[in-house]
Amino acid sequence: MSRPLPATLLYVNVFVIATCGLVYELLAGTLGSYLLGDSVTQFSLVIGLYLSAMGAGAWLSKFLDGDLARRFLDVELAVALVGGLSAPLLFLAFAEVEHFQLLLLAVVFAIGTLVGLELPLLMRLLEGQVAFKDLVSRVLTFDYIGALAAALMFPLLFVPSLGLVRTSLVIGLCNAGVALWGTWLLAPHLQGRVTGIRVRAVLVCALLVTGIVEADRLTRWAEDRMYADEIVLSRTSRYQRIVVTRGKAGFNLFLNGNLQFASADEYRYHEALVHPPLVAVGDAGATPRRVLILGGGDGLALREVLAHPSIEAVTLVDLDPAMTALGTTFEPLAQLNRRSLTDPRVTIVNDDAMVWLVDAPAGWDAVIIDFPDPNSFALGKLYTTRFYRLLRTKLAPHAAVSVQATSPLFARRSYWCVIETMRAAGFHVHPYQVAVPSFGVWGFALARGEPFDPPGRAPAVALRFLDDDALAAMFRFPADMKPVEVEINQLDNQMLVRYYEGEWRRWQ
Question: N or C: which end of the chain has fewer CB atoms below 10 A?
Fold first, then answer.
């Protein structure tokens, strides 16, 4: 009779299998969203396929007989190799593979199948050594604990500290380390010599350690192939991947692969976003003194607000402290935003705008909303009736609000969904649009709590683009951007996210 397996093997292996497996799943979903956009669809596909693949792996495990200990360790090493190298492979392949999504899903299926093989094999190894009811309860308990650990550590520790590529490699190294350790724990159950599998485990560990050491260089090399211009800055924050590129026309900022602005023409966007609501406040017989900016951590909208001499205080709320820090520490951006983020009139708050707004002070003269596009449910909540109704309670009676609202040309239903959602929340809204060469035609919303006319005169501050004629033209829409029938974006349906993903997918 073979010697019973140590209980430690059960606990550690089940925990590692669950933790690593979920991290691989989250990595694939995040990478798919980052590289392909369409975050809701990508995560749905990845999660569904991964779970199905685990079922396929569990079914295939019944065909594995004889020397189960060796087969379990081989599967563990395969998970380490395929899972650990998944993020580097996908990063490198994105610029080279025509049907990248198929490769992404193939990698997900392979990892899910291998992970699905592990638990059944481990349970069969322990069969007869642990009471069945105890075996099942322990396996499921530590499986769920491992999944919880992965769900917490992935956004809070792994991605902010390690980045996507290094996270993948480190988790693969954990799998390989457990496999190497298992060659001693399972030695009484291994048929034949163990030298070969130990050598393979050491080689896999060495490969993954090399990858960890070279992860930054590999990421830069892969991103160099993704972006047309030279990368001058790249970093991963708790919330996003920040990349700045530089070309002949200036520099560009990308968040999770999506262009946020180009220094060559950002002034058209930010002048259109900021000045109409400040003019509207003046048209209402008031003077804009206290302004709230939601989003806009780059400081460019803030630059335009501070150009008005009447401004006494501005509060800027942006989720990511790495983004607001970039606006002061990255010299080209600090020069572009005229060091607005260090102006003594400015208060910077790093928080979720919707959470912060609940207890925020009221009486704002103007609110500038410069959120990222609604490409996920986390962002889509900031465009719902719930958010706009909450915002209305924080405004002075004469206040005006502007919102960036994606493109009325490329994402027509998305744009008019924002407009109609604001109206459903009680705002009187005037839609407007402007051409920004880096983005194409871009749309905005100008809103107040009371009926009002669109502003007809540009403000008396130094501007590069906006004058009386340009201001009037922004509020006119050609036939291909006229209103279309849309549903209201509410917190419990997030129709805007569905419109957005469906419309922008056509242009990718």
Answer: N
